[in-house]
Each structure stands twice: as C-alpha cells, then as structure tokens.
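pls ignore typos typing on phone
pyridoxal-5'-phosphate + seq
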Amino acid sequence: MLDAEERADLLLDAARRAARYVATAGERSVVPTEEAVAALAGLGPDLPDGPVPPAEVLDRLDRLGSPATIVTNQGRYLGFVTGGTDPAGHAAATLAGAWDQNAALPVMSPVAAHLDRLAARWTCELLGLPAGAVAAFCAGATVANLTGILAGRDALLHRLGWDVAERGLAGGPPLRVVTGAEAHTSVLKALRMAGIGRAAVTFVPTDGCGRVRPAAFPAVDDRTLVVLQAGNVDTGHSDPFAELLGRVREAGAWAHIDGAFGLWAAAAPDRRHLVAGVEEADSWATDGHKWLNAGYDSGIAVCARGEDLTRAFATDAAYLPSEDDRAPMHLSVQMSQRARGVEVWAVYASRGRRGIADLVEGCCRHAARLAVLLADGGAEVLAPVVLNQALVAFGDDATTDAVIAALQVEGTTWAGPTTWHGHRALRLSVSDAATTDDDVDRVAAAVVRCHRRAG
Ligand SMILES: *Cc1c(COP(=O)(O)O)cnc(C)c1O
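k done
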C-alpha cells in the first residue's frame, strides 16, 4: 500500500510524536482529564469497512490516545510497582520493532539469539545467581513465577519417579506448597495454572514487615514446593532466605523465589544484604518491566539448572541447552516470541553494572526520604523503608481513603491504596530511574496537602 519513502515518512512521524510525548511528559498531569478520556470514543466504536491511510490512523492515535495516558514515565508516578522508561531500552525497542524478529529459535534470528544469550547471562551476574543458572525471558513476573513453579513441580515429581510429560498429574504423588501469608496473588494464580489448588497450600504467618516468620515455618520434604518472596509489594521487605533455604535444600524440597522487583536489591552493593542467601534457591522470577525500566511484557525466569527448564518446556525431549545454542522456545512457556532480550541488553549495555546499582540505590534513597517528609507532614509510616516502597497511613481508614482519593485526581502523582494488616494504607513505589529529589519534594507536598484537606 505504501511505497518505501511513504513508509519511512510514517516511521519518522511516529518517532517525532513519540519524542514529543516523552519530552513533554514532565509538564503533564500524571492523570488525564475527564475530557481526554471521553475523547477516546473517537477511536471507535465501529470497525472501519475498508482501509484508512496509516498516517491518518497514527495521527488519530496520537491526538486522541496520547492525552488519555497515565503518565508513568516522568518520575512522579508511584503507583503499583511499574518502573519508568529506560532511554536506551526504549530506543532499542523502537528499532527492534522494525526488525520484527522471532526469538523462538536461534535459526530465526542471529541477533535476537545473541542478545538473548548475553542479556540472560548478565541478568544472572547482576543478581548474583549461581554459575550455571539459566535465565529465560517471558511476559512478566506472573509468567516467570509460573515458569519456576512448573519447573519445580516437574523436577520434584521426576525425582519421585513420576514423569509428568508421560503421565500427567492425575494419580501422581501429591505435592504440597509452603508460602508466606503475604505471597503475591500472581503466585496463587501460577499455582492454580500448574494444577496445584489452594487446599495444598500452607500459608506461613508473617511478621510486622510482611516477612515469613522462621519459627512458624513448617517441616518440608521432597514433595514440597516452597515459594518465598524478595520484596513484599507493600513494604519491600524480603523473606529471611539465609535462615530458611538451608532447611529447604536439606529436605530435598524445591525453593522458588518471587522477586519481581525485590530481587534487584542484589544488584546494589548496599542493599544486597536484604536478600542474603537468595542464591541458594532453585528458581527465581523477576521483571524487566518494573525496576529495570524496560517496556512492558518483560519478565525473567531463572533456574539453577537448565535441565529443570527443558524437562518442563522443551518440545524436543533430547534438547539440552548450551551457552551457544539457547533456544528460548525450549526454556519457557512460549514458542514464537518478541526478542525481549534486545531491550534488556540495551538497558544493561547503557547503564553497566554500576548504573544498574545506582538505579536501585537511587530509588531506595528517594523512598526513604519520601517517608521522612511524609512523617514530618503528619503521616504514619507503617514499616521501616529498606527498599523502594513506602507505606503510610493517616489515622483512621476513612481519612486514609480520603487522602488517597484526593491524591489520585490531583495530578502531581498517582499512588494506590492497599490494606495492610487490617488497615487502609497508601502505597508509594519509587521504581523509575527518572525520579529526582524535586519529584520527591513535589509528591510529598501533594500528599501533605491532600491530608490537610481531608483532615
Ligand atoms: C508485579 C509483581 C508480580 C507480577 O508481575 P507481572 O509482571 O505484573 O506479571 C509478582 N510478584 C510480585 C512481588 C510483584 O510485585
């Protein structure tokens, strides 16, 4: 439909619009106006009968779509744990979009295979995971949790003499799961998808920071899948791996770590103690699209032994990965897949080891200072800030909810509510490399303003 020159113009137009969006993000309200959201109606409702020129589609998308975004990449969005936009990663993703490579098999893309291998190895290095560990890129930490849980399920059953690929699950040795009372919902979702129901799960009581209490941790055996957490979504605190993983290992159980964002503590020398001993586990899940600031749909599953991944995921039973011959489709759930390693490689290549450490450390410092400013302004800080999460409340639940509701429409920031140990709380997550001291000051001032008005 378009000739080569028109196609190039279209891409340049898209790049110009993207550049303008990013350049003006800092001046915009984090939340869109009601008018902007209402104007999305102009993108539908009917499927067009026939072709529309791509330039016109792009123009409409930018005019109506861009104003209706939540501006998550300008340093003041502190909702959920989302991360921002790494410049090198974003640029690489734009280029890789043009490449349109399928990373399923090395033969499908030399460049995707090469960067997938490098990014996987560098991930293990940065996180201090054991030599020989194999990382696989996937859609997010939910899928990475699923990947680790499936690998663990099949490995445990294999050791018990039960071949899941041949016999399925029915009639096999029942497995038990032990996890913290504050395990992320994605862990329960992954267990359900893995054929392990809630009745098989023992939830271990947690302490005032959301960590599993070692004294309450039950005896485990070679039929137990243990799922621990690096980074509680509310407080950022991690389970006591050093105290627990030795016991888990001796018993022949499998240990999987949900470290969607918290595992990145390992990449910063001054935070590494927060996840001490985490390298003793069998599998780990983390995200590229959260603290690493890569674009969405970027999770990373890591297994201490590659054969535990291929047992669960290789479609060719004889396949064993080597450093030179990694086939992503044999290491995780998907066959065809975006070359996610390209973007992650670009983030690492541009920041280097020290830059990744600074990204983590900087967010932690901002979170700590934010908590101090909020406490000075009358908020109650509900857990010591050790990582990138600050959790605060404002007296009673009704006041806390009123502060959050006001904050969410005020436009300086966006952050969400949680229920923490029975009480409503405001959860603030600093996980964008773009956040500055000035952003922290402005967010703190906005929260204090909303509190005054609500109180
Ligand atoms: C975000 C998160 C997940 C889920 O990750 P997705 O990338 O959204 O699938 C799992 N566990 C924890 C602790 C998280 O913070």
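Residues 353-454 form a domain with the Aspartate Aminotransferase, domain 1 fold (CATH 3.90.1150.170). Residues 81, 140-142, 184, 186, 231, 233, 258, 260-261, 287, 299 surround pyridoxal-5'-phosphate (CB under 6 Å). more later
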